[in-house]
């Protein structure tokens, strides 16, 4: 394709993205109402609240959990403070049920639960595995950790927790021209069939550029580009996922969750500490709101979920996680290079995500 054609296409895409945003704003009240209705089924929004110290936290000790990757094991790799382990989420208008791992294992007896997405899925999958393991420390488990599919099986209960790694949900295909990110192709979905619970997540990799970008071209239909607006790409890819869900998921057999956008804390200006990032942070922000507001990717998630027909429960963890600038590994992440203000220590914040998922399951 000629350079001019590509420029025109890029401009068209930007223009359609602006139009899309305007429509999203205009439709905002209705769409948001629908989503809120879904998550307030029991008369309470679990995701509005604040962090409080709870002496009974954390829910497990990382040294007793056989499933934690080094990059999340902050205590083992020398994190000196421990107050961050003690915070518990308190919704404003109801109390959050305490996590009961034995009850959840019984409910899930004979079932297969699969997390699908990037390393934030890995983070939440390892957290849930540790939470369940701490409830039944003496039961037999088998643990398989691979790049594509990993699993933890609680044999006595017949519960299988799977992790399928696919950072974009849609496919990357090797072709003669190079690696092509196909926004309209989701062949990987074949591996997600037959599950009793599916928990999806995607976003962080849509922002990757340069060496950490695992594709050379981005393609939708027959239009192949070198690059495009990343929010538009995310919207298109997530719409492909939503169509896949509507065609392949039977809601009477499979419970569906979407793990909301997990925030990062690289830019202290977002919370009025312009010279800082997550390094050295030992306390959450007080209150219930994040100074910088929600990241734009949350609009994309809300817009796609408002159109999907199969009920998908949004774990709306963005704001409560934004408050936890203290909960990242920073430098205490094993061999992991650099400062990690993107993932979360275990035990830690993802335990609350799982506690919220458990509360949602109880309310269904
Ligand atoms: C976790 O267990 C180890 C080994 O028993 C212990 O030294 C450590 O203090 C415990 N950590 C916490 C946070 O309780
Ligand atoms: C991608 O293709 C679909 C189906 O043809 C179309 O509806 C959508 O607008 C396209 N998106 C972009 C960003 O090109």
Annotation keywords:
364 residues, alpha/beta, 30% helix, 17% strand, disordered N terminus, binds 2-acetamido-2-deoxy-beta-D-glucopyranose
SSE diagram, text form:
Elements: H1 3-39, E1 49-53, E2 87-91, H2 101-107, E3 112-117, H3 119-135, E4 141-144, E5 149-154, E6 159-165, E7 171-175, E8 178-182, E9 197-200, E10 217-220, E11 223-225, H4 230-248, E12 255-259, H5 297-307, E13 313-315, H6 318-322, H7 349-363
Parallel strand pairs: 3-6, 3-9, 8-10, 9-12, 12-13
Antiparallel strand pairs: 1-2, 4-5, 5-6, 7-8, 10-11
Residues 61, 63, 75, 82, 85 line the site of one 2-acetamido-2-deoxy-beta-D-glucopyranose.
Separation of the first and last Cα atoms: 51 Å
Q: How do the helices and strands follow one another from N- to C-terminus?
A: HEEHEHEEEEEEEEHEHEHH
* DSSP strand content: 15-25%
Tell me how many strands there are. 13
Largest sheet: 7 strands, mixed
Overall 3D form: globular
Count of domain modules: 1
Low-confidence stretches: 1-39
> How are the strands ordered across the major sheet?
4-5-6-3-9-12-13
Put simply, the count of helices is: 7
Small molecules bound in the structure, each named once: 2-acetamido-2-deoxy-beta-D-glucopyranose
Radius of gyration: 20 Å
Task: Give the class from helix and strand content and strand pairing.
Answer: alpha/beta
Mean pLDDT: 91
**Level of helix content?**
25-40%
Signal peptide: 1-26
Protein name: Protein trichome birefringence-like 37
Domain Trichome birefringence-like C-terminal: 96-359
Membrane topology: Single-pass membrane protein
């Amino acid at each position: 394709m000629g350079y001019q054609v590509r420029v025109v296409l890029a401009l068209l895409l930007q223009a359609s993205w602006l139009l899309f945003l305007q429509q999203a704003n205009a439709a905002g009240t209705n769409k948001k109402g629908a989503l809120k209705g879904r998550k307030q089924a029991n008369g309470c929004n679990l995701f509005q609240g604040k962090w409080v110290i709870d002496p009974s936290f954390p829910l497990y000790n990382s040294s007793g959990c056989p499933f934690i990757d080094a990059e999340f094991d902050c205590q083992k790799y020398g994190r000196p403070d421990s107050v961050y382990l003690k915070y518990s989420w308190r919704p404003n208008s109801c109390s959050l049920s305490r996590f009961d791992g034995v009850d959840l294992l019984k409910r899930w007896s004979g079932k297969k639960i699969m997390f699908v997405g990037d390393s934030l899925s890995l983070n939440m999958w390892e957290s849930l595995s540790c939470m369940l393991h701490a409830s039944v420390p003496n039961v037999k488990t088998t643990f398989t950790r691979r790049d594509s599919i990993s699993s933890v099986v609680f044999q006595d209960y017949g519960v299988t927790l799977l992790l399928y790694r696919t950072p974009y949900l849609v496919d990357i295909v090797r072709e003669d021209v190079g690696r092509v990110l196909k926004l309209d192709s989701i062949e990987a979905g074949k591996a997600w069939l037959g599950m009793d619970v599916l928990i999806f997540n995607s976003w962080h990799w849509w922002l990757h550029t340069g060496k950490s970008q695992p594709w050379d071209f981005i393609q939708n239909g027959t239009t192949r580009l070198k690059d495009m607006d990343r929010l538009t790409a995310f919207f298109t890819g997530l719409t492909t996922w939503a169509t896949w869900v509507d065609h392949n998921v039977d809601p009477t057999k499979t419970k569906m969750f979407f793990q909301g956008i997990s925030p990062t804390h690289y830019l202290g200006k977002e919370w009025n500490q312009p010279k800082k990032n997550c390094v050295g942070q030992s306390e959450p922000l007080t209150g219930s709101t994040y100074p910088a507001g929600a990241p734009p990717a949350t609009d994309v998630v809300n817009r796609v979920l408002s159109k999907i027909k199969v009920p998908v429960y949004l774990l709306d963890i963005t704001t409560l996680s934004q408050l936890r600038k203290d909960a990242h590994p920073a430098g205490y992440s094993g061999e992991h290079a650099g400062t990690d203000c993107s993932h979360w220590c275990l035990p830690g914040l993802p335990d609350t995500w799982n506690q919220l998922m458990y509360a949602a399951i109880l309310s269904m």
